[in-house]
C-alpha cells in the first residue's frame, strides 16, 4: 500500500495513481465470512469496481448486504488493466485457489513493456489464527466419515488398538529425536482424537462433538492452573503437580491416590505411577516384600521414579542398545 498523503483524509484508501490500481483481496475460508479487516472494507467501499470469479464465494452475500456491488465476472488481465484507466481502482476478490491465471497474465503484460500498468497490490483481508488448520482436519474427517466405506463403519472399540499403536509410535519418535517423524506421529495421534469425536456425534443417547472435547479440556486446564489463570502461586513444578492432584481428587471425589491409575498400562509404568502418587501425597508406604523378579522390578521402578527417571524409557533405551549389539554380532549394518 502507498503511504497516505498529507491531503488524504484519515482512514481512507490512498488516491489512485493515473494508471489506476488493481487490489487482489485474499480471504481465509477458516474465518467466518464477513469478518474482514478494516482496510479491506475501506478498499471495497471505495473501489470503482469489485469483481469475483467465484459466484459461490462465501464472502459475496456479506459484501452485498453491506452495499458493495460485486460483478461475478472472470476478466482477463487486459480487461482489468483497461478497467483501471483514468485512475480507477478495481478490487478482485480472490477465489480459494487464488487467481494464478490472472496474476500470470498481469506479469506477462508488465514484462512486455507495451502497456502502462496500474499499481498492483495484495491485501490480505482475513488471517488464519494459530490452530486454524484444525478446522480443515475436522472438515476432512467429516467428509471421510460420510463417504469412505471403511471409515464410515468404524467404532470406538474398533479404533482403540490404533490409539495405542499411535501413542507408542509417538513415544518412539520422541526418543529417537526424529523431528519429521515427531510431526507426523503427532498428526496421527491428533487424527485419533478427531476420529473418535466424529464417531461420538452419532451416538443416539449421549452425543458429543470435537468442540465438546476441546471445551472440556480448556475448562479443565484453566481450573487446574489457578497459578496461571487465578490468584494462587506456584514456584516449582512440584507445587504445580501437588495442586493438580489435589484438584483432580476433589473433582472426581476420589478416596484413594490409586484411583484413576489404569492397571492395564505396562508394568514398569504402573509401578512408577503408583510410587509417584504415593510420594506426592506424602504417604510412607513400604514396598511389599516377596520372592521373585516381579518384586525386584517393582523396587527398581520405585527407585527410578524417586530419582526422576522414567523406568519404561530407561528400559527401552537399554533394549535398543541390546538390539544394536545383536545386529552388530550378526554383522548387520545400521541400527
Automatic annotation (TrEMBL):
One Pfam family in the UniProt entry: MazG
GO biological process: dATP catabolic process; dGTP catabolic process; dTTP catabolic process; dUTP catabolic process; response to stress; TTP catabolic process; UTP catabolic process
Any one GO molecular-function label of the UniProt entry: methyltransferase activity
Residue ranges of the TM segments: none
SUPFAM superfamilies: all-alpha NTP pyrophosphatases, Tetrapyrrole methylase
Entry superkingdom: Bacteria
Stated name of the protein: Nucleoside triphosphate pyrophosphohydrolase
Limits of the NTP pyrophosphohydrolase MazG-like domain: 154-229
